[in-house]
Design brief:
By secondary structure, the chain is of the alpha/beta class. It has helices at 31-40, 57-72, 91-99, 110-113, 116-135, 164-177, 194-198, 204-223, 234-238, 244-251, 284-293, 323-328, 338-341, 347-362, 368-372; strands spanning 4-9, 15-16, 20-25, 45-46, 76-83, 105-109, 140-143, 148-153, 181-184, 260-264, 274-278, 298-303, 316-320, 335-336, 381-382, 388-389. The longest helix has 20 residues, at 116-135.
Length: 390
């Protein structure tokens, strides 16, 4: 019997687990308009950001693609794009990307409408109409195999690789075995552990793509200078980690033990099902933005130090590696994998608990990040020389 969760079937045949109406600026100059529309219509989700205008054509191309992909995320039922009118990210290009999903796309240009007040008034009118349309949609049974789950870790500690990350790996294996898709992110946290994943690649071509990506990441980091702490944060050190290799060995465990089917670029939607590696940076917010742009429905985020991080379009399930962190930040953390350390749960049983939470959230259960209104958003940027700007 096919296992199902309760989701929304979209006009293009994809599946959403949320029914969001989003107001997205194409440029930072439109942020205040977006924020005012959200203030007057709080049921919509505004996504202010610092991007949208640059003289760097490489960054500009990726910004356009990722903003379009965020609007295309299957959890978005309709969208209003707000432009100033003179930015380098072109409104019509972003709108054309989103329109391919057959969802409603409305556009506002501040300079053409005669200023912010008129744009806000039009945006409020459009937002209310889109919400009325979204309210008519109903959930229906959807096979587990159509669910895309992202994985992330941040604020890691010495327990992360022993409890939360491998428990998420168990949940990842359970989902892949149901025919679903899991995205393993953060290439900067593969360094020193890439051979583990390379040995599990589906083909020599996928293996080479993975190793080339890790090599390119190392070269990019080398251009930024050296570090005595091997590029881990002060919080990681205080949590008991000592090197990036030690952190990486824990990070890759979130991907479980299944075959790596594909390597995709930042914000790129997988073309295959199963375990997928995505090129995202170690910056948590930039990474989960890329995962969301890649079509993930939700993200499982492990932490040992604690974090409130969420996403505007994807529910984020927070899993602590230790019980002290969970007890300290219960407003922000959904599950306590510290129970593995205290032997109240095994990795297998904790993984099953995490997977059950994934299915419940896919069917509508609110995460702590959603309840707290955490909607962090940032884009990774390339420089014109092809090097990531961290």
């Amino acid at each position: 019997m096919t296992k199902t969760f309760m989701g929304y079937r979209n006009p293009d045949g994809t599946v959403g687990i949320r029914n969001h109406i989003v107001v997205l600026p194409t440029v930072i100059c439109a942020n205040s308009v977006v924020q005012q529309i959200e203030k007057q219509v709080p049921e919509v989700i505004g996504i202010p950001h610092t991007h949208g205008c640059t003289l760097d054509p490489v960054s500009n191309q990726e910004m356009t693609a990722v903003l379009g992909a965020i609007g295309s995320n299957p959890n978005v039922a309709g969208i209003i794009l707000v432009a100033l009118g003179c930015e380098s990210v072109l409104l019509h290009e972003v709108a054309e990307i989103i329109a391919k999903t057959k969802k409603p796309v409305e556009t506002l240009v501040i300079q053409e409408l005669g200023g912010t007040k008129k744009t806000i008034a039009k945006g409020v009118e459009l937002a209310k109409a889109l919400l009325e349309g979204a309210a008519r949609r109903e959930r229906e049974p959807i096979p587990y195999s159509e669910l895309i789950v992202g994985t992330e870790c941040g604020g890691s500690d010495s327990y992360s690789g022993l409890s939360a990350n491998p428990a998420v790996g168990v949940a990842s294996d359970l989902h892949v075995d149901q025919g679903g898709t899991v995205i393993l992110s953060e290439i900067t946290e593969f360094l020193g552990a890439e051979a583990i994943l390379a040995d599990r690649c589906a083909s020599p071509e996928v293996r080479q793509q993975l190793l080339d990506l890790v090599d390119w990441t190392e070269q990019s980091l080398a251009q930024l200078g050296s570090s005595n702490v091997a590029d881990i944060t002060p919080g990681n050190l205080e949590g008991g980690l000592t090197t990036i290799e030690e952190k990486s060995l824990g990070c890759v465990k979130k991907g479980g033990s299944r075959t790596v089917q594909e390597v995709v670029g930042y914000g790129q939607k997988p073309s295959k099902r199963g375990l997928i590696v995505m090129d995202t940076p170690g910056h948590d917010i930039e990474s989960i933005t890329g995962i969301a742009a890649g079509g993930a429905h939700l993200i499982v985020f492990t932490t040992g130090r604690g974090t409130p991080t969420g996403s505007p379009v994807c529910p984020v399930i927070k899993v602590s590696s230790n019980t002290a962190c969970y007890q300290k930040m219960q407003d922000n953390i959904d599950l306590d994998a510290g129970l593995v350390i205290t032997k109240e749960e095994t990795l297998d049983s904790m993984g099953a608990i995490i997977y059950d939470e994934i299915i419940q959230v896919a069917s509508g259960k609110q995460t702590k990040a959603e309840l707290s209104g955490n909607r962090e958003f940032a884009l990774r940027r390339y420089g014109s020389g092809g090097c990531i700007i961290y």
